[in-house]
Amino acid sequence: MAGKSLPKVNSIDRRFWQGAAEGKLLLQKCQKCAHRQFFPRPVCTRCFSTDLDWTPASGRGEVHSFTLVRVPRNPAFSEEVPICYADIILEEGVLMQSRIMEKDMEKVKIGTRVTVTFQDTDNPEIKLPVFEVAN
Questions:
Q1: pTM greater than 0.70
Q2: How deeply is 84 buried, as exposed, middle or buried, from its count of CB atoms within 10 A (0-12, 13-18, 19+)?
């Protein structure tokens, strides 16, 4: 992953990245209204409560929309094109942006079922949640 930037972990998303390093996809869940959300925030996006906890997600979802990048802005990704970035609706109803790791891009369509996996990086404490087409 040389030349590729990694997330800068902060106090709000630290638990998310710890879960990812353990192979778990975690979502924030509001203890007041039960709303689940991604990306990590200091307050619930529905009721503005600060009483948030972390809950495991199934890791399953479907492609809501996607784009194929054929010319990456960062040359470090040149060997990986085409790269599929997608909006994925998780089974929990949360929209998550991520990458779909698929050699045959013809398999990726709106509505395609996907499952999470975790991509290693140069930092052993950071694993990136990415998705694969479900069988």
A1: yes
A2: buried
